[in-house]
Input
Amino acid sequence: MSNQENNKMIAEFMGIVYHKLEKVIVIDNLVIKEDELQYHISWDWLMPVIQKCLIGEAEHSEDVSNLAIKNIYEGICNQDISLAYESVVEFINQYNKNK
Output
């Protein structure tokens, strides 16, 4: 999947409304084009997503905890936004499969 597709998936995980006809996302009454989402390049965008992923960490399956969450922590500790972003995408994919 491309960053744009992953960013849309992240926005949906965060409960943000995606308007398919206009291909825009509305965040706090701001209209953002889907190709302007910045989860993959901005810690300001990504950190709330990471926080949501880590809430209830102990309740996640062992597979999720061992793979995605470990890599999220590693991305944060190493200040590697690419690793953190990829790990968040992996977490959300696993989360969506298990819900």
In short: The mean pLDDT is 85.
